[in-house]
């Protein structure tokens, strides 16, 4: 990744907050084309700066004025461009490693307020019942209106064990909801798996982190080991996955696609914003690291697949779903995804933090733009547990102010399946780290003698209608395969 004029170290990411695509780049600014400065406008800026310094009711620090000016300049471009002070920049990098202190909420901005995109699994926010679409009105005693996302994140993060009180506004709730949460070290397991039933595997991706690809590889190996034979069908669950590392998305797609198949490409004004990322190790392995898909079981490339998405599936999730859909490698089931199809580059500013700047758009292998549209499932299956009111609370990229437009008219053929709830039952979901056989005791079973779920979010085709339909599609595929032979 070097040239005579330019040396850079890049970490590609997707998914901070509402699921964006980021590129952390350390590069020589002098090698970039220098913009011509608008002297008249800068003269106006200097005049305003001077008036504030001389006449504002209280003295204002120069650093604060410049910082706020930078924030306003970036936030006025689109919902995802922003200024990161040194602390926010450090926290962003920590978040991609799968461990950070806080509450476990993916957030976005709307009308000057902070809106919950989705709570992260197994975190204080999820356990407190915070829902997608909730508006955070106050953090402790501080009103949120007027705070930047970075300021809101700072107030919600803190030392593990300390408490923070959030005041929430929820549609159709007449009064604000007040919840007090205890901050914790958020350790998110990005990959979990289980056998839904003999021959049919399930893998859940919660986020795309540094170790997601190797953990996926391990989960695929564990499924074959526990099933005693390679599974004959696989469900990949990307619901409410807000994104993560871009190279993680490329690696996940690469696990199921032929070598060198195009996964995603980007288009932007700068030459280094134009990328074509294929299913090749150099596009998904960590810097100077080994191939995280080494030893990948052969069945991963051919097993019939269904991918489940919903309105909380963003950016990196949409890249994977779009690639598998375009290559006809999987059937996409669920509801329209979030539509986060722009790339943000994290550009360090020396000792002054960094800027997050939108620099490109994503396109699926067939040339479809994800931006403000998302991935349209091949089979639309609504979530039977979500009411119409809750569905209305779902925000998507197209709902955000100043979002980039999408002029793509590409369509896919859609089949709609009516939603229908089902009774509950299930078995626990496991992560690759918990690969030892799980004993069954009295606590693992319900009063009917059936194995009970230790976690209500565990996958269960009987109570999860979308998952049940995904499993049915896999079984139909097996019947068609047998008839074809």
Descriptors for this entry?
2 domains; 2-enoyl-CoA Hydratase, Chain A, domain 1; 7-stranded mixed β-sheet; globular; Peptidase_S41A; Pdz3 Domain; disordered N terminus; hydrolase; single chain; alpha/beta; 22 strands; 485 residues; protease
Report on the architecture of this protein.
With 485 residues, the protein is of the alpha/beta class. It has 2 domains: 101-187, PDZ domain (Pdz3 Domain), CATH 2.30.42; 191-341 and 362-484, 2-enoyl-CoA Hydratase, Chain A, domain 1, CATH 3.90.226.10. The protein is 24% helix and 24% strand. It contains 10 helices and 22 strands. The protein has helices at 39-55, 62-75, 86-95, 124-127, 149-156, 212-227, 246-256, 316-326, 388-393, 465-484; strands at residues 9-14, 21-26, 82-84, 99-102, 105-110, 113-119, 135-139, 142-143, 163-169, 177-182, 184-187, 191-197, 200-205, 233-237, 262-267, 275-278, 305-309, 331-334, 342-348, 354-363, 379-381, 415-417. Strands 1, 2, 3, 15, 16, 19 and 20 form a 7-stranded mixed sheet that branches. A 7-stranded mixed sheet has the order 12-13-14-17-18-21-22, sandwiched between helices. Belongs to the peptidase S41A family. InterPro entries: ClpP/crotonase-like_dom_sf (IPR029045), CtpA/B_N (IPR055210), PDZ (IPR001478), PDZ_6 (IPR041489), PDZ_sf (IPR036034), Peptidase_S41A (IPR004447), Tail-specific_protease (IPR005151).
